[in-house]
Write a structure and sequence with these properties.
Strand content of chain C: under 5%
Radius of gyration of chain B: 22 Å
CATH class of the largest domain in chain B: Alpha Beta
Largest sheet of chain B: 11 strands, mixed
Chains: A mainly alpha (342), B alpha/beta (411), C mainly alpha (293)
Largest interface: A-C, 98 and 98 residues
Distance between the termini of chain B: 51 Å
CATH class of the largest domain in chain C: Mainly Alpha
Helix content of chain C: over 70%
Order of helices and strands of chain B: EHEHEHHEEHHEHHHEHHEEHHEHEHHH
Number of helices of chain B: 17
Oligomer: heterotrimer
Structural class of chain B: alpha/beta
Chain lengths: 342, 411, 293
């Protein structure tokens, strides 16, 4: 296709993405390089319904003047990236020299907010994605074998968890897993421990979140696998049957190889979505024990009053870099495919 | 439910002003656009604002639970998206920092004759906001349970723990105490209460330098830890709503939550036996101090800087009409504690009045307080779970705060 | 047609049915529970005393005189103005789906037919764009939108959602168009058609399976979005999800939980209906090649 035609075909879609995704990414990047200008403080008398007292406030005139001189704020380079709430270079250096063992060092490292969040995000990603792919595949195989008349309703039932917005899905489950709720009581009964509560310890909360992640993501893998199963060529399967191959052998040697590209697609989407995990953490009220990178951004922007744009921007950039690293293998594969196709 | 409390004299009531000057209501010029949080009392208030503005006014209000996220961007635009914003002593500082709300002295002089002095939020000699209601956290207890076990109503946190342990030992309840310990803003607020109760100061006077890693901070944390030991093990996930559910299900005999919860805790839905047994008590003091370990809050309104004088006047008039409406206050006496002249407090106002009388500290209106509150929200969890020492947790709080305050230019 | 040798053994069928049944219960039960609970009062559904209350409706009986009630539905739709949120959701969803498909098919067609290297980089950029946390994007929009006075209205949110949705739509449709034989439109080009005419008359008639699938995914995104809609819309224009969130209340003040529960049911029901109706198309669209990665 000539460049000109391509341009006109792609222009509207490209423009929308450029304006509403590209520009914000660039602007977050610039914000992450700057910090607010210095705030000049002054002491004044404040009176409210509970009485008067002397308190500090920002000297608006002086600060506004500073702000006008530096509308973007003070240039801080990569300083925000290196501070304690992000990559924490100084703290790590200090921990490295001061700690006597690797265990102690890891302890200090994982107590820093960014690494704590990174650990959870990666754990979540890698604990959720493989079961999702495997379960999705098994469910798809399984649904594929049932009677035609039952297929419709079954497929519908299986994909329900996917079509409900995560915030609501996790809220619904959160209500149910309370120690006195139906699922919570059931689990207590199952483990024969009347004091067991899924919300009380960090390990259990992590497990709950991961199980939720699997519950929510499996339908997507299922739908894609199921669709792909319909395209499995029938001839080799029949030939294999005639050769006396068992069902397992047929799946292993014909179906699975056919589904490989589809599996990479699912893994790609799953990794990407799970790397951004946010809503389940809020829905399950797990902020205290399970923080993800997205949650850090959310927290910077939500903090009761002040939005920390620089900090949020830095975390966003680090998240994007993280996703890019995660996706490299897939990207390389796509690149090879793309080249051979041409 | 009416037999709850002997109505205490409302000490906020000062001199009643003479009616006079211009009447604020019946606005015809200018448009009124208000940004507000979303909850029942604000809706009552907004209905009154609307009726004061009158049928000819160009009136609209946006209730949003995300109001604090929107406010800076919305009011920085010129002209601002909203002409007025409902504020509290927690959120006014952000708007003050960026000069987004204007002084109201001339408008108050023109229309505000019915205002009480304590409704005026005066900063550096200028009125920046008008308050209309007050709120605070305080103790709630189940009378029959305390009576059965011969426990007096606790007036200190040490007594609260003793009482809770007695109830626990009696086998009546497994986790008799509840507080909003949900990690995040709630948890930070619990620490703020307890630290102020111990007589602590968050910052070195006149600067943004934090100082919470001290004996008082450690004592406050240890007290919180002891409270969580007599609470539901899920305490880190329980916000005010969850605590109320525990209460209404009869799992809790003592709790420390907001006075504004009274409306739903004492209504006619749910188990009436529990509701009839629910009593309000003053907030306890702690560590031998005299002030209650709680903070006082006011809600009020401010007018945007970046809006035309005409719109500002229209918005001010309508909001002022509601903020001085004795009728509205007395029609909804238990909706909240109104600061309005002529309001006779409902049965549930007592503990807040008591807190004010005993010198409870208002939530600090400092420009950098929200940053510290944010740091407290996330860094205390590991201590409460027993994975970290109190000193380490407080050191983490300080470090997290320093990084944020540096980014914001306070340090 | 199944060949005879390929018949399933009895054991396999048994294990299989058992597995599917178990999986169905896991996926569907929370929804049944919520649906059932939405007809109870708060003291039952959120009981911290005994979950059986939610089944039997003890408090519902005391408060309303019956073991189930539609009070929450009636109140949330009238007093809670859920109907308004429903209207807004319909407007947003329909517009987002239409616009994103229109832009997406054009763009994806071009990407699938161009042989230059930049198409690869565009696809990679689209992937990176998809990885961006929405919350950062939204906070970047707030200030300019307020300055331009376009905050709070539906069109702004629609455009933002379309843009956020483009990367996935592009990828899905790109893979789909790849499976449409090139010869089809190339022969049209040789016959003297312009690219646009080839697209209009040759590709459009065969693209529907892929488009329906892409449309369903766009619909789910627009219908379920929370981050964008809750911050970019004013309260009059709230869609269902932020509205439900608003019912949940804030720190100091309790919300109306039963409104939220009944609204969850109200909001999910139409989505169920649409998916039930289009499920075959969803599968066949994916089958037709959109899943080739």
């Amino acid at each position: 296709m000539p460049h000109r035609t391509f341009f006109w075909f792609f222009f509207p879609s490209g423009l929308a993405m450029l304006l509403f995704i590209g520009l914000p990414i660039i602007s977050s990047f610039f914000q992450s390089l700057h910090i607010e200008p210095e705030q000049i403080l002054m002491e004044v008398e404040k009176c409210d319904p509970f009485g008067c007292k002397t308190e500090t406030k920002v000297d608006i005139e002086a600060t506004t003047k500073l702000q006008e001189e530096q509308p973007l704020g003070r240039f801080n380079g990569l300083g925000t990236y290196g501070d304690r709430n992000h990559l924490a270079f100084d703290e790590i250096k200090e921990a490295w020299t001061n700690s006597s063992s690797i265990a102690e060092f890891t302890d200090i490292l994982l107590n820093l907010p960014f690494y704590k969040a990174l650990l959870f995000t990666l754990t979540f990603c890698f604990a959720v994605t493989p079961p999702v792919v495997v379960l999705g595949f098994i469910v798809a195989l399984s649904v594929n074998t049932i009677t035609k008349s039952l297929k419709g309703p079954t497929i519908f039932g299986v994909i329900l968890p996917m079509i409900v917005t995560p915030l609501i899905g996790s809220l619904v489950l959160f209500w149910m897993i309370d120690a006195k709720g139906i699922l919570g009581s059931f689990i207590q009964f199952l483990f024969d421990d009347p004091n067991l509560s899924l919300k009380s310890s960090s390990q259990l909360t992590w497990i709950t979140l991961i199980i939720y992640g699997i519950w929510h993501n499996t339908p997507f893998a299922f739908v894609v696998f199921y669709a792909a199963l319909q395209t499995v060529p029938q001839d080799p399967i029949e030939a294999a049957i005639i050769d006396g191959a068992s069902r397992y052998e047929r799946v292993r040697h014909i179906v699975i190889p056919h589904l490989y590209p589809v599996a990479t697609f699912i893994i790609l989407i799953c990794l990407m979505d799970n790397f951004r995990v946010l809503e389940p953490i809020i829905g399950f009220a797990a902020e205290g024990v399970a923080q993800s990178l997205s949650w850090m951004i959310y927290n910077d922007l939500r903090s009761e009053n002040k939005m920390l744009f620089g900090s949020a921007g830095a975390t966003s950039m680090l998240t994007i870099i993280g996703v890019a690293i995660l996706l490299t293998p897939v990207l390389i594969r796509t690149w090879r495919e793309f080249r051979t196709e041409r | 439910m009416k037999k709850l409390l002997i109505a205490l004299l409302f000490t906020f009531v000062t001199t009643s002003a003479y009616a006079g000057g211009h009447s604020p209501c019946g606005v015809t010029d200018g448009s009124i656009k208000i940004l507000a949080n979303e909850f029942t009392t604000y809706r009552i208030f907004m209905d009154e604002v609307k009726s004061c503005a009158g049928p000819d006014a160009d009136f609209s209000v946006t209730h949003s639970v995300d109001h604090n996220k929107l406010q800076v961007a919305a009011l920085s635009a010129n002209p601002a998206e909203f002409s007025a914003k409902l504020v509290t002593n927690g959120s006014i500082t952000t708007l003050m920092n960026d000069n987004l709300i204007r002084p109201l002295d001339d408008l108050v002089a023109k229309y505000g004759s019915a205002l009480q002095d304590n409704q005026k939020i005066v900063i550096d000699g200028k009125i920046y906001a008008v308050a209309f209601m007050a709120n605070a956290q305080h103790l709630w207890y189940r009378e029959s349970i305390l009576n059965d076990l011969g426990i007096a109503v606790p007036s200190t946190y040490e007594e609260v723990i003793a009482a809770a342990e007695k109830i626990k030992a009696s086998g009546k309840m497994a986790n008799p105490y509840a507080g909003a310990f949900k990690s995040g803003w709630n948890l930070g607020q619990e620490f703020v209460n307890m630290y102020l109760g111990h007589g602590g100061d968050f910052f070195k006077a006149g600067t943004a330098e934090v100082s919470v890693n001290n004996a008082k901070g450690v004592a406050a944390l240890n007290m919180l830890k002891r409270l969580t030991e007599v609470s539901n093990p899920d305490f880190l996930t329980q916000d005010t709503n969850a605590v109320k559910e525990e209460w209404e299900s009869g799992n809790v005999a003592l709790m420390h939550i907001w006075n504004s919860g009274a409306a739903s805790l004492l209504d006619d839905e749910g188990d009436q036996a529990i509701k009839a047994d629910t009593r309000l008590a003053p907030s306890p003091s702690v560590g031998g101090g005299s002030k209650p370990a709680t903070t006082l809050w006011w809600d009020g309104f401010g007018i945007a800087t970046n809006t035309s004088d005409e719109n500002a006047e229209a918005s001010f008039r309508a909001l002022l009409g509601a903020a001085t409406s004795t009728e509205m206050a007395n029609a909804n006496p238990n909706a909240t504690i109104w600061l309005i002249d002529g309001y006779s407090p409902g049965d549930t106002a007592g503990p807040v009045v008591d807190a004010a009388n005993r010198g409870a500290t208002p939530y600090p209106s400092l420009p950098y307080m929200s940053l510290l509150h944010g740091a407290l929200s996330t860094e205390l969890v590991e201590f409460l779970q027993g994975n970290e020492s109190a000193e380490k947790a407080l050191a983490d709080v300080e470090a997290a705060y320093v990084a944020k305050a540096t980014e914001q230019g306070f340090l | 047609m199944e060949s005879k040798i390929n018949r399933y053994s009895k054991q396999l069928i048994l294990i299989n049915s058992f597995f599917i049944l178990a999986w169905l219960i896991v996926s569907v039960f929370p929804f049944i529970w919520t649906f059932w609970g939405s007809f109870k009062v708060k003291a039952d559904f959120f009981s911290r005393a005994d979950w059986m209350f939610a089944v039997t409706g003890v408090n519902t009986l005391i408060e309303t005189g019956d073991t189930s009630t539609v009070k929450a539905y009636v109140e949330s739709w009238t007093e809670g103005e859920f109907w308004k949120a429903t209207m807004n959701t319909i407007i947003i969803t329909v517009s987002v789906v239409t616009i994103s498909l229109f832009l997406g098919t054009l763009g994806a067609y071009a990407l699938s037919r161009s042989t230059y290297k930049y198409t690869f980089w565009i696809l990679i950029a689209a992937l990176i764009f998809r990885a961006m946390p929405h919350i950062t994007l939204v906070s970047g929009y707030l200030f300019p939108f307020f300055q331009l006075n376009v905050w709070g209205i539906l069109p702004t949110t629609i455009i933002v959602l379309v843009a956020i949705n483009q990367p996935f739509t592009l990828w899905l449709l790109y893979s789909f168009f790849k499976t449409v034989p090139k010869e089809l439109d190339e022969s049209a080009l040789i016959d003297g058609c312009s690219y646009f005419q080839a697209f209009r008359f040759v590709i459009m008639p065969v693209m529907w399976p892929g488009v329906v699938t892409a449309g369903l995914f766009s619909m789910m995104l627009a219908y379920n979005d929370f981050t964008v809609t809750s911050l970019l819309l004013n309260q009059q224009n709230y869609t269902m999800v932020p509205k439900i969130n608003a019912y949940l209340g804030t720190i100091e003040h309790s919300g109306n939980y039963m409104w939220a529960v009944s609204s969850v049911v109200s909001a999910t029901a139409p989505l169920f209906m649409i998916i039930m109706f289009f499920q075959r198309q969803l599968i066949s669209g994916l089958t037709a090649g959109a899943v080739k990665g």
